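User: I'm writing a tutorial on reading structure tokens. Could you give me a worked example: one chain, its sequence, then its tokens, then a sentence or two explaining what the tokens reveal?
Assistant: Sure. Here is the example chain.
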Amino acid sequence: MTEEPKDLQRAEADTVMFASLRAVLPNPTTENRFTDLDRALPGRPGVPGGPPVAPGSRSARHHHRKPAERPVVSPSRRVWLSRGVLVLIMALQAALTLRMSNTAFEDEALYLYVGHLEIQHFLHGASLQGDYPSYFSGAPVLYPVLGAIADKIGGLAAARALSLAEMLAVTGLIYAMSKRLFNERVALCAAVVYAVTEPALFLGHLATYDATALFLLTVATWLVVRFSDGRWPLYLLAAPVLTLAVATKYATLLWVPSVILLAGLTSSPKIGRRALATSAALAAATVAMLVGAVYLAGPDYMAGFKFTTLDRFEGNATTSSLLWDSAQWIGVPFLLAVIGVICWTLRPFTDRVEREGPGGSRVRRALLGSLMAGSALLAPIDQIHIHTETSLFKHVGFGLMIAAPIAGVGLSRVIGDHFRRTQIGIAIWGLSLVVGMSTANSQFDGWPNSTVFIKDFSRYLTPHGRYLVEVEEVPIYYLRHNPDAEPDQFTSTFYFGYVVNGVYTTGDPAYVAAIKDGYFNVISYNYMTTEAVDGVIGQALATNPDYSLAAVIPIPNDDSNQYIWVKTGNGKNGNAKTG
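And here are its predicted structure tokens:
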């Protein structure tokens, strides 16, 4: 018997291997780089220029045998495989999110406590303790109430679980959008890129407006992608969702134009009347609803919108520091988005049969890709303009959601067809994973753990006592069931007004005068949030014999200490009035 050439054996093994890969990988293609390899081998029996085929040999039987049909993965199986991988991605996201641990952040404490007050006000007419619409960055009757309901059910953990569920839904909707815009492989790449970023992990464990607003913005974006090319104008359902997202967190307005433009660019393969009409209709509906919401809300809400969003205070952060921080938080996904824009614009498919996006001209692809990728830069550009870093680590997640699909294209192209550059893709994603984990964990450890402080502070509460506390929202939240810890008993180190000799005084002189008069029963600070004011307060206390240092509490996740001073003397004037 004639022995079969080793080249032929390798060719057959390669063909079997590729057929096996096609059976489990999503987005199979008909392009097989091993096809006809056995017929192209030089010196193979039966090939022109090669030796003749020996009758009855295995080579002869193979030479006259019909080529085997390649196994094709059914669409339903491919869908379920893809969804299974998506579930694993979301499980990874949840695990990376839940590994972080800390007590309530000041914003969490404020929103949840105000939510409880809003519920009591609605049900029983209880006092609200403050004009919250005038300085909140979102409607206090929306997320704070929703968060308070979750908090009522299971405490802070339940409120944070709500945020995690919303961020997991964001990842799932990114997959759905990317699958419709491109294909399943790109959708999985987009989901796995977004799921490990700093904003996705951090916002999933923070009980604030952000996760809810981002979830609503993502729903609106999905509605646009899903229905903009349909027969009926169901994409207009995005208008009320966009309005609700903006009402939940006013800063969401920054990304509304991106969603409106996305509606036009995804409505038709051509940039023509339909594209313009779609964007115009969605813009008109959204503006009308926003104007109506402002009219119904009243002047206090408009004042809060101007104070927190339109007229934000300028900071002193440098452009270089803001660029560096933005690069850490979204640098790798944005780089992948840029790669995706370039590759998809130049060539909308990777092989002859597997397209990676809707048809249309190169100009249309460039505009659509640039719109998605450029949305990731809106938050950094806006905050570089006003030189402030406040909330930038949260806001970058909004634009990155819109950029995620084209970032998925970038990662898919880096990996290449037939997974030829898998190692490079894994290395890039691994870098994004490490950066996302480390930066999210750093942000979550950025405020002091208050467990010991709350326990010690509660020992010094008195009926009708007055408390000066740095970041007073945290003890107000944790001690909300204590009748000696009502919100109006607390004063912040951010602002204080005090009447001195008939003159209303604010700032450092007000704190010094109040301490001299023994106005506060308990004073606590840690030199972390209002360091300059804390220094003035500490010096005034050190020279006042009516106050004693009751506790010095080391902060577990920082090198600072929490100081608690208690009034032990009568003071000069304990009945002074504040304004």
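What the tokens reveal: The chain has three domains: 6-64, 86-208+299-444, 451-567. The beta strands are 467-469, 490-492, 497-500, 503-506, 522-525, 547-554, 561-567.
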